[in-house]
Amino acid sequence: MKKGINFRKIITKIHANKWIALSPKKDKVVAYDAKLIDLTKKVGNRKVVYMKVPPMDTAFAF
Amino acid sequence: MKNTWIQYGYSFPLGNFEGFTVKEPFIDVVLSHNGRYFPQLSMIDSGAYIITMVSDDMRGIFGIDASACKKVNVGGIVGERVEGFLHNMTMSVDKFDESIKVPVVFVPGLKTNMLLGQIGFFEKFKIRFENSANSFYLSKV
Residue B11 and residue A6: Cβ atoms within 8 Å? Predict the structure, then answer.
């Protein structure tokens, strides 16, 4: 089985409302930024997986 | 891959809700358009009951002008409404070799990056949620 990710181990409050780039194994945040375009510049050619972290103090019904 | 169920593990949440543990069905997908590829984690969301939604921030990454999109209204559960931008994209899903064509709505102000909804995803994949076993499964329709 492909294991899920324990976001609690790798994402903190400083990442809330920001775009993050995760390592391919998704075990650490490689870079983060409020703007996606700026994050892609920081990442360059490195292989990453992107996501946007929602606010952590709110229950969302997406 | 038809009739073969692929097993995935639930991810644990980014936040905490009143002490409850919530499991989230995230999968790796790569959204692409005109030779540009964007790998990301995406949540399977039966609540996105009409269509797959992605952050409008990605429209710039793919170089898609708003004028090339059909304008559609998008609303949330508390009533706010914004204009989204409908466009056809290509998507590949982790563990599946074949890419699929999928219409998505680019949504300004979306609080997350991508929600896999009914049109384009649920109609192309069978989905089985087994929360108690900490697993969910996908199979091609």
Answer: yes
Domain ranges of chain B: 25-136
The ipTM estimated for the assembled molecules is: 0.90
Cross-chain CB nearest to A1 (options B9, B13, B41): B9
Dump pLDDT digits (tens) for A25-57: 999 999 999 999 999 999 999 999 999 998 876
**What confidence tier does B49 reach under pLDDT thresholds 50, 70, 90?**
low
Tell me if the pTM is above 0.80: yes
Smallest Cα–Cα separation from A11: which of B76, B19, B112, B7? B112
| B76: closest chain A residue by CA | A62
The candidate with the shortest Cα–Cα distance to B34, out of B73, B68, B67, is B68
CATH architecture, domain defined by B25-136: Beta Barrel (2.40)
